[in-house]
Design brief:
The structure holds two protein chains of two kinds. Chain A is of the alpha+beta class. Chain A is built from four helices and 15 strands. Chain A is 17% helix and 35% strand. Chain B starts with a helix and ends in an 11-residue tail after the last strand. By secondary structure, chain B is mainly β. The chains are: A alpha+beta, B mainly beta.
């Protein structure tokens, strides 16, 4: 279940999704206590299945103290064989000023949709910290797990029996905040009339 | 808030599209809403140093060993300290993806840099149901998420 919050309307909407795989790896154990995972400094991540690998996504940028916690991998399957694994647009989780390129190849070079054909979306949104303020620790203190590494895996294409795999159609980016907002508004206009927001929300 | 709650309970469809309208949005956004999960995973975690490799996404193929002719020359043995990357495969797990059948997915954490020179990595392997909704929590996490 996820929540979309529209600050302009003071409204939260939750949608129940299916066909997602989620993994949570605690921010504290990776960034605050890197010795536990033997990954001091920058932390990158890639997904693999069968003999196919994705590009690297940066989870923690030690130089800039950025943490990119949201990742969605899309496994493209043709008749049961994985043809590629791409990353989905992770910038739907944040405003545009927090959206940065964070996809790399295995030579350590940053790559993007312009540089590599078929790579898919390459940007993600980050939390940051400076000498006086650590956004992740603030969230952590408030029992928020936003900075924990969260990975969603969805499949697309056809399985070995030629059955279609639908889970990628239910990924987050398929419900961009704008389209969700529009659908939400439209449905309420239909049910309550155009004055709903004016009357109800004041 | 009282007035809003009355609207909320009046419409059954809101169980699917749950709407909270409040002057203190933050409070509701951080409420705990549990989600039922029925799928369980076997998980393996290990750290390793992988040998110099060349990884190109979407072009990885299974490694095959070609037989070589015997030579009179003394063979040159190159000791390899680290295992080669052999993909994300496991015995007992079908290689081919089949809907609603277990499949293997690996998540690998490593450094940023040139992996061709070797890299210390931590790999999590798990077995979700292909195309199914499921949740996985790394053991030992400070928090486990029961809602999102």
């Amino acid at each position: 279940m996820i929540f979309f919050c529209f600050s302009s309307y003071n409204i939260c909407v939750s949608f129940t999704f299916f066909s997602f795989f989620m993994v949570y790896i605690a921010y504290n154990s990776l960034v605050s206590n890197p010795a536990a995972t033997k990954q001091p400094g920058n932390i990158t991540i890639f997904i693999s299945s069968q003999t196919t690998v994705s590009f690297l996504r940066l989870y923690h940028d030690a130089k800039h103290s950025f943490t990119y916690p949201y990742l969605t991998a899309i496994i493209d399957v043709t008749k049961g064989n994985i043809t590629r694994i791409t990353w989905d647009d992770a910038c739907i989780f944040c405003p545009t000023n927090r959206c940065e390129e964070n996809t790399f190849d295995f030579a350590g070079k940053m790559t993007s949709e312009n540089k590599t054909k078929g790579i898919g979306p390459t940007k993600g949104c980050y939390y940051t910290r400076n000498s006086t303020h650590d956004e992740c620790k603030e969230l952590f203190k408030n029992n928020r797990t936003d900075c924990d590494l969260s990975i969603y895996v969805a499949w697309t294409g056809t399985d070995s029996m030629d059955k279609p795999l639908f889970s990628s159609t239910k990924r987050y980016s398929a419900f961009s905040s704008k389209s969700v907002s529009e659908q939400f508004t439209d449905s309420f206009y239909k049910m309550f009339g155009s004055n709903f927001f004016t009357n109800f929300l004041g | 808030m009282q007035r809003n709650s009355r609207y909320y309970h009046s419409y059954p469809f809101l169980y699917l599209v749950w709407i909270c309208i409040t002057n203190t949005m933050t409070d509701l956004c951080t409420e705990n809403h549990s989600v039922g999960y029925n799928t369980f995973f076997r998980v393996g975690v290990f750290s390793q140093t992988i040998s110099p490799i060349t990884m190109h996404p979407s072009s990885m193929k299974p490694t095959s060993i070609q037989p070589t002719k015997r030579s009179s020359k003394k063979p040159t043995i190159r000791p390899t300290r680290h295992p080669k990357w052999g993909g994300c495969v496991a015995e007992g797990i079908p290689f081919s993806i089949q809907k609603n059948v277990e499949t293997l997915v690996c998540i690998t954490l490593g450094p940023l840099g040139n992996w061709n020179q070797g890299a210390n990595v931590t790999r999590y392997t798990f077995i979700p149901i292909a195309d199914d909704y499921s949740k996985f929590t790394i053991p030992g996490c400070t928090y486990t998420i029961s809602s999102l």
